[in-house]
Design a protein that fits this description.
- The complex is a heterodimer of chains A (about 525) and B (about 280).
- Chain A is of the alpha/beta class.
- Chain A has 19 helices and 13 strands.
- Chain A folds into three domains: about 100 residues, Periplasmic binding protein-like II (D-Maltodextrin-Binding Protein, domain 2), CATH 3.40.190; about 150 residues, Periplasmic binding protein-like II (D-Maltodextrin-Binding Protein, domain 2, 3-Layer(aba) Sandwich), CATH 3.40.190; about 220 residues, Orthogonal Bundle (MetI-like fold).
- The longest helix of chain A is centred in the middle third of the chain and has 34 residues.
- Helix content of chain B is about 40%, strand content about 20%.
- Chain B is built from nine helices and ten strands.
- In chain B, helix 3 packs antiparallel against helix 4, helix 3 runs parallel beside helix 5 and helix 5 runs parallel beside helix 6.
- The longest helix of chain B has about 30 residues.
- Classes of the chains: A alpha/beta (about 525), B alpha/beta (about 280).
- At the A-B interface, helix 16 and helix 17 of A face helix 2 and helix 3 of B.
């Protein structure tokens, strides 16, 4: 009976999720429009690590030979571009690679349809690699991380940057990057390949800017606002336009700024009515507006198109694999570390060596429980490993970081598990002539594990869901996979509902497995 | 068999045992009585170093086992111990409880002998014929060790009438059954001496009898025993020597008849007048 109830409830929940998707479909989303006034003048260029003069010259020469205008012309109508590129996302095993950092949620400059890359920057990168005789590797990461991964870590800040060869994750960054003073502090830029500007996107029925045709008109209006909210992709020029940036942009302190991880999310929030305007690069704004106009009513078709026709499922399968690998191996590493620390901590009378080990364990738990996993990922991948001069693939970094993080939690779980076992068990084993280690392994730890199994299951579930932040170090997990479907299609409801269902199914599987194991262990608690 | 010389034990500043001298000979059955907190349980637990003595020496099998350098596990295998709280392994069936340690120890010895034989063979290659070492004889294969432990467990379980419970887990048994299994678990190691730490104190009154009669049975087979108990009648019946411990010292030591009928010290007279 209980099982039937659970099953019915599950089906009900999944159905209601899908219903939300369908019913949203019926509700006409508010349309919006672009205010055709160019707010800034900016130059898009390719970011490159400081001091890499030779590579920079090579790229400048190659850029001069590439017909950028033709590529831009081709993307005036995004829908008509059929041919994308399959580009590897890791330099492992690739000879003479050109590793390019990008953020493929920035149509028409770079975006994904399923597993394939599209966009102006992508085509430029492809052409560049061809001219330089290198193999292109495209690392898709959060926009905020691009400059960091190109700049690398300045290991000797006191020394002038001449001839300085820092360790970098990526050779160059192509992501519609405008040349700004702040960015020039960390990286160099090549010649400009595109001139762009910031524009505003507003709701269609918003008439505030209808009369304005000039820059000064718009700026006067902006300066006169109070209680208005404006959104943009974090770290883009739009943000600095509102917040102000040195001598270049004076900013508008009367307007509240909200940063999003992609332009399309900002636009989604505009539709939902949480912000009043979106500020965005002109080309992108145009693509967003065009995309919505065409497909306002076709959520399901769009999702199906991106998922099946454009092979988005390949990304999802890859992401699912990564999520499971990171969570599972992370938990195993966590259990090993946790058990070792807990076993040292519960020794009643410690000698000097054991005391030192125990305080190292305390420090480790303090460090990894006290900081968020996202911060640990960023610090280990972008700071710690480069400082050590190690080049490790990002999925392995993710597994190790999650293992270290979970070890801190498991050590405390394990300690409570070990101390929940009656002390008489250890005494009886020792009195019969077994050593401390043998008694621990054969008698105490099996009983401890039985006691903490539900909590360990909890830890695994938490870990499984925490993997959703590995996008910070450019690993595709299941969240990132659906995000890229959503980002490509400007359609969030269905992908996120399906994502939620994926997580629910995964977690249900784990719950079931834990229950079965508990049942198996419970044998010693009842008569046979 | 056990010689205790000037044994001392303190927890922090508190001295629990203060200069204990005791000798247990083969076949002797020593019963220790005393008020709670007098140190009698600590004394018993010191005999197999479950509590590490802070001073003095305990000689067993020709070695001072209070010395940290001695391999205590080897000696503990010859000293059976029965606890107040039974302490059966909760994650093992009744039969596994009995066979676990004999099998683990048997396999440990087996592997150790094999390892040693390997090195002997290796070093023999470089030695002249007269100097060659002989191998350690290995009498039992792992399978035989397991079979023997199984047979012994079956035999012991049949003896206490709990053979039909052999595949049950301890949580399903009564206190009396658990304690009888704990006793045969200790017996399965073929100990030279057995220590009982208040074996009936945690039992329901109706189950005390079955446990005591098993201990008596083992005693009648000539097992050397040291027993801490509050059962005076049982002490009188089974003991060959009774000790009265108070404030960490042995106040009186005498054969049971004399101990109970003609106590010498004031402290013991007072104690006996209360409990008898």
């Amino acid at each position: 009976m209980k099982k039937i109830t659970t099953l019915v409830l599950c089906v009900f929940i999944i159905c209601s999720f899908l219903f939300v998707g369908v019913s949203c479909d019926k509700k006409q989303p508010t349309a919006f429009k672009l205010i055709d006034v160019k707010l800034t003048d900016e130059n898009y260029a390719i970011a490159i690590g400081k001091g890499k003069t030779e590579l920079k010259n090579q790229i400048n020469n190659a850029l001069a030979e590439i017909d950028v205008d033709a590529i831009i012309e081709k993307y005036q109508d995004m829908e008509s571009v059929e041919k994308g590129y399959d580009i590897p996302n890791s330099a492992d095993g690739i000879e003479n690679p050109l590793i390019v950092a990008t953020n493929a949620e920035f149509a028409p400059f770079e975006y994904k349809k399923g597993a394939q890359y599209f966009g102006i920057d992508v085509e430029i990168a492809v052409a560049l690699a061809e001219k330089l005789g290198k193999t292109l590797v495209l690392v898709n990461m959060n926009f905020d991380a691009i400059i960091t991964s190109v700049a690398g870590v300045n290991m000797d800040e006191g020394v002038s940057n001449d001839g300085y060869d820092a360790y970098t994750h990526c050779d160059i960054g192509i992501a519609g990057l405008s040349v700004t003073e702040e960015r020039l502090d960390s990286v160099d830029f090549t010649n400009t390949y595109f001139k762009s500007s910031q524009v505003l996107i507003v709701n269609e029925n918003d008439v505030t800017f209808d009369e304005c045709k000039t820059l000064s008109g718009v700026e006067t209006l902006l300066a006169g606002f109070s209680n208005k909210k404006i959104g943009s992709q974090s770290g883009t020029t739009g943000e600095y336009y509102i917040k102000g940036s040195g001598d270049w942009l004076k900013g508008f302190s009367n307007i509240t700024f909200k940063g999003y991880s992609s332009h399309s999310l900002a636009v989604q929030d505009l539709i939902n009515g949480n912000i009043d305007f979106v500020i965005s690069d002109y080309e992108t704004a145009k693509a967003v507006v065009a995309s919505y106009d065409v497909n306002a009513n076709m959520r399901w078709q769009k999702f199906v198109k991106f998922f099946f026709t454009y092979k988005g499922y390949l990304d999802v399968v890859d992401g699912l694999k990564n999520t499971l690998i990171i969570a599972f191996l992370g938990l195993i590493i966590g259990i090993v570390i946790g058990t070792v620390i807990a076993s040292i901590k519960i020794i009643p009378y410690k000698n000097f060596f054991q005391k030192v080990l125990s305080s190292i364990g305390d420090f480790y738990v303090w460090l990894f429980r006290g900081t968020p996993i996202a911060v640990q990922l960023l610090l280990i991948y972008y700071v710690a490993l480069p400082l050590m001069g190690l080049k490790v693939s990002s999925i392995i970094v993710a597994i190790i970081t999650y293992g270290l993080n979970s070890g801190a939690y498991v050590s405390e779980i394990m300690r409570s598990g070990l101390s929940s076992v009656d002390g008489g068990q250890m005494e009886a084993g020792r009195a019969l002539g077994l050593s401390y280690g043998k008694t621990m392994f054969k008698i105490v730890i099996p009983q401890a594990i039985k006691n903490i199994l539900p909590t360990l299951g909890n830890e695994f579930i938490a870990l499984l869901k925490e993997t959703s932040v590995v996008g910070f170090i450019a690993v595709t997990d299941i969240t990132k996979a659906f995000q890229s479907i959503a980002g490509g299609s400007y359609e969030y409801v269905i992908p996120y509902c399906v994502l939620a269902i994926c997580y629910l199914v995964l977690v249900s599987g784990v719950t079931l497995a834990v229950k079965l194991m508990e049942k198996r262990f419970k044998k010693s608690d009842r008569s046979c | 068999m056990i010689e205790v010389v000037n044994l001392e034990k303190s927890f922090g500043d508190k001295k629990v045992l203060d200069g204990i001298n005791l000798s247990v000979k083969e076949g002797e059955r020593v019963v220790i009585i005393g008020t709670s907190g007098s140190g009698k349980s600590t004394l018993l637990r010191c005999l197999n170093c479950l509590e590490d003595p802070t001073g003095g020496a305990i000689y067993f099998g020709g070695e001072n086992i209070a010395d940290f350098k001695v391999d205590i596990n080897k000696h503990r295998r010859h000293i059976g111990m029965v606890f107040q709280q039974f302490n059966l392994f909760n994650n093992k069936t009744v039969k596994k409880n009995i066979t676990l340690v004999p099998i683990v120890c048997g396999l440990e010895n087996y592997r150790k002998s094999k390892r040693k034989n390997f090195f002997i063979t290796l070093s023999n290659v470089f030695k002249s014929k007269a100097k060659k070492q002989s191998l350690i004889p290995i009498t039992e294969t792992p399978a035989e060790i397991k079979r023997k432990a199984d047979e012994k467990a079956d035999e012991l379980l049949k003896r206490i009438g709990l053979f039909d419970k052999k595949d049950d887990y301890p949580s399903t048994l009564s206190g009396g059954q658990k304690q009888r299994i704990a006793i045969v678990r200790a017996l399965a190691m073929n100990p030279k001496v057995m220590l009982f730490d208040e074996p009936t104190s945690a039992l329901d009154p109706e189950m005390v009898g079955e446990v005591l009669s098993l201990i008596k049975e083992v005693a009648n087979e000539g097992m050397t025993m040291v027993i801490v108990t509050h059962e005076m009648g049982f002490a009188r019946e089974v003991a060959t020597k009774v000790l009265f411990v108070d404030e960490g010292k042995i106040v009186e030591s005498a054969p049971p008849e004399e101990f109970f009928t003609n106590p010498k010290s004031e402290r013991l007279k007072e104690f006996l007048s209360k409990v008898l």
